[in-house]
Amino acid sequence: MICSQCQTDNAEWASVCFKCGKLLEDHSDADSPELDVSATIIDDPSHESLSGLKTTIIQSEIRQYLTAGSLFANRYEILDKGKAGGMGVVYKVMDRELSEVVALKVMHPDFLKNNTALGRFKQEVKIARSLQHPNLVRVYDLGESDNIKYFTMEYIEGKTLRQLLDRREKDNKPFSLEETVDIISQLCEVLHYAHGYTIHRDIKPENILMMKNEEVEGYIVKVTDFGLAKMATPSMLSVNTKKMGTPYYMAPEQLKDSSKVDKRADIYSLGVILYELLTLSLPLGRFETLRVKRPDVPPSLDPVVDKALEPVIGNRFSDALELKDALNSAIKISEDQPVEDTPVEEKETVSQVIPEIQKKAEKPVFQEKAFVERAIQHPKPQKKKNYMIPVLVGLFLALVVSIYVISNLKEKEAPPTTASMPSEALPSPPAEEKGPVTAAPPSTGNQVQAKTAIDQEALDRKVEGYIGNAKNLLANKKYDSALIELEKALKIDSRNVSVYKLQAEIETEKKISMMEAQKRAEEARRIQNEITQYSDQGIKYFNQGKFTLCIEKMKEVIKRDSNNVVARGYIARAQNEIDKVNQAWGKASEGETTIIRRVK
After folding, report:
1. Per-residue DSSP letters for 30-67?
2. Residue 593 DSSP SS3
3. Among candidates 506, 520, 580, which has minimal Cα distance to 545?
């Protein structure tokens, strides 16, 4: 949500601006239906039509004449009812000047609510118009008609990647490796191109349009709202779909402060989409590796996903093409150097193991060959055998073994008589006391896997414990202690989205609490000033003999400070003076009685 004071883009759940501390206005409507954010897909049945939309996305007067068959801006003939999105409403229109079908987007009325936002919007549209790439939805023109801001763009016939994912999930058929590589490669290329000009900051399936490729089997990927997403507030961009919302595709640094991100935030979003295409699930918390979710996928892809989803910005891919190259290299490794399946619990990836195996396999062969050649060319002279060295070595080893055995026996709390004996005379323990010595059975793969699962569950419980502690501390308004608990959780699980969300919530609550404390302090100062003002006036009236007015002013003091001793004292003194006047004058005229009557 953009702050109206400093124009800082804050998180969607923020109630106060992170930069200037101003309370933010919520433009959302609780009764509004869930909306999709697709920009140029027109024939999408999942969208709500404009006629049935109960939301503040567009003014009611616009609805009255932007209907099918009407003419907008004396140029665009409306061809459908329009589909609502996060930043406005999109119509399929006929451009009468160019005689072609285009998409017309009418902007959200709150989207351009001040001159600063309008200037930024025009600048971003100019950038978007300058972008020309086969995988980008082209922006054509920017205009205004009857105080309605709009722009036109390329009309696309197709579906969103979200619609395809929903279909695949229904059929339980994730994207194949070839389909995934093709989609991600196109996204990497268009992001690499566009990052030279701007950042998207809202890469997700809803903003990716899929067109059937007529020449070859597959899809042509089109990214929409490039550059414009930078202008929108998070509350506009993160309108819930029926499955998930924008925060799941946001990088951790974007969840904290979306105004200070670079192109690596888009790369993180690509990593989420890469994982989702192959598994039909999101990489939340300690997510399962591709090796577990998709055994048919090369295990060398796991390091690629891990680096794309790296929560530390510096450890993430620095460029979209770097991600594409790493993806292709991982596939090439799996094709050129197939290896046997390794246990899931092994930490090393196949791409790391293969070079080590080759190095270990080649080095001894080379050394052995060189040794043989040297031995043939320069045979060593025969030396007289010396038996003293082996004897001394054997004695030394025996001494070391004896010391080791003694230390082990001491650790196992051997009987005092045995422990006190010298090592040379140490007898073997009786067979009936110690029993036969058997070697521990080797750990099987299932045992190791079970131990790994137990360890993982323990770590997860630890993280949940830290989160629970943080929530309890938040309820008691101990914000700093709650943030410390979440930092402990992030050290164990640095990718836990729930931790980042709770962290942002706590920081927001902390700032709200500070603002409320500041307001309370200001209110206390205001009340104190009023008390001082009324008190000074009351004392002045008392000294002038205007006891009734003195009592009125002091009662105002009592309203603001019921325990004010000074005010109560002056009220009592003034009342006594009034009583004295009444007693001295006896019966007074009716008007005089009104003036000096006893004040209740």
Report:
1. TTPPP----SSB-S-TTSPBGGG--SSSS-HHHHHH-S
2. helix
3. 580
> With contact defined as beta carbons under 8 Å apart, do 456 and 287 qualify?
no
What is the rounded distance in angstroms from the CA atom of residue 507 to the CA atom of residue 405? 59
The CATH fold assigned to 449-518 is: 1.25.40
From edge to edge, which strands make up the β-sheet containing 208-212? 159-160, 208-212, 219-223
Q: What's the pLDDT tens digit per position in 36-94?
A: 333 343 334 333 333 333 334 344 445 455 788 899 999 999 998 887 766 678 899 99
Residue 234: C-alpha distances to residues 9, 59, 202, 240, 282 (Å): 8, 21, 9, 11, 20
Q: Give per-residue pLDDT as tens, 443-480.
A: 555 555 666 667 778 888 888 899 999 999 988 989 89
- Return the CATH number of 50-153, one of 3.30.200.20, 3.30.70.1110, 3.40.1170.60, 3.40.50.720: 3.30.200.20
Closest Cα partner for 1 from 237, 234, 257, 254?
Answer: 234
Q: Active site residue: 9, 166, 182, 202, which one?
A: 202
Q: Kindly report the pTM of this predicted structure.
A: 0.54
202 a catalytic residue: yes
List the one residue out of 253, 139, 238, 143 whose CA is nearest residue 494: 253
